[in-house]
Amino acid sequence: MSTLSEYRNRPHWSFSALNQFVNICSLQYAFQRVMKLQPSFTQPSLSFGTAFHRVCEWINLTRKDGCMPKKAEATDLFKTIWERQIQEDKRIKFDDKTPDDLSQQGQQMIGCLVDNLDPAEQVLTVNEAFAVPLVDASGESLEAPLIGEIDTVVEKDGRKTIIDWKTSGSRWPKQKAGLDMQPTAFLYGYQHTHGEIPDFRFDVIVKNAKPVMEQHLTSRTQDQFDRMVHLVRRVEKMIAAEHWLPSAQSFYCGGCGYQDACQAWHREASRVSVRLAA
């Protein structure tokens, strides 16, 4: 089975790319994925999320082998991986919290996750990559496939569930999981790979003073898959026409590493050669 990095070697679509263009900032998409600009800094939340995700991988690989992970081992692993992540991501721009603050917070959040593991769940796969054609309601395939990597798939009482691990600064609104594009993309990929549509669940660790875990279960229908493919087709046309705009009031704007490029965007006279980016 190919890895996600191998699937990235050809033009493709991913949830993160589509979500960035549609919901975050289409100009940020252009800076990162078309113009290939380097951001001036890295947000701590991105590096923190990477370290958290790596520990979640270890936790679920341990469960897949039939063992329950020990809390102390998991929290110690976060501390080690976080220190390594700081060295790898040299442009992290720390603001209100220091690296040590985030290390302690991460260890507490990993401890919360371990405390809330369901021993009745059987872990089937961890980090399963997929690359599938995007097929519209009329049966026509788009040129670029959809790729992604599923965090883990579990089974309980005969029902399979895709789980995606998240960290969050606040509790999620009740409607968020139902509106989020990620379950649509990943369930679409799983259906094309396995011929079935499981449930999808976000396991969210909220960064409270005492972290708490939320679980948000959702599902998708074929009509929602068709809508996603139709959306991709429209976005491809917008990219070809260089129809991207800044999103100055976006929640993500303050932490964006392309702020200088954004401020100069309207003064750039030259056009870039557009191709579907990774």
Q: Major β-sheet, in short? A: 6 strands, mixed
Q: Count every beta strand, where a strand is a DSSP E run of 2 or more residues.
A: 6
Task: Report the structural category.
Answer: alpha/beta
Shape: globular
The mean pLDDT is 93
Total count of helical runs of at least 4 residues: 10
Quote the beta fraction. 15-25%
Q: How far apart lie the N and C ends? A: 20 Å
Radius of gyration: 20 Å
State the helicity in percent bands: 40-55%
Question: Which spans have pLDDT < 50 for at least 5 consecutive residues?
Answer: 269-278
- H/E element order: HEHHHHHEEEHHEEHH
Write up this protein:
- With 278 residues, the chain is of the alpha/beta class.
- It has helices spanning 4-7, 15-24, 26-34, 44-64, 71-88, 99-115, 176-179, 181-194, 222-240, 259-264, and strands spanning 13-14, 122-132, 146-156, 159-168, 199-206, 212-218.
- Strands 1, 2, 3, 4, 5 and 6 form a 6-stranded mixed beta sheet that branches.
- Strand 3 (146-156) and strand 4 (159-168) form a beta hairpin.
- The chain is globular, with a radius of gyration of 20 Å.
- Mean pLDDT is 93; it is low at 269-278.
Task: Kindly summarize this structure in a few lines.
Helices cover about 45% and strands about 20% of the residues. It is an alpha/beta fold and about 280 residues long.
What keyword list fits this structure?
6-stranded mixed sheet; globular; disordered C terminus; 44% helix; 10 helices; alpha/beta; 18% strand; 278 residues
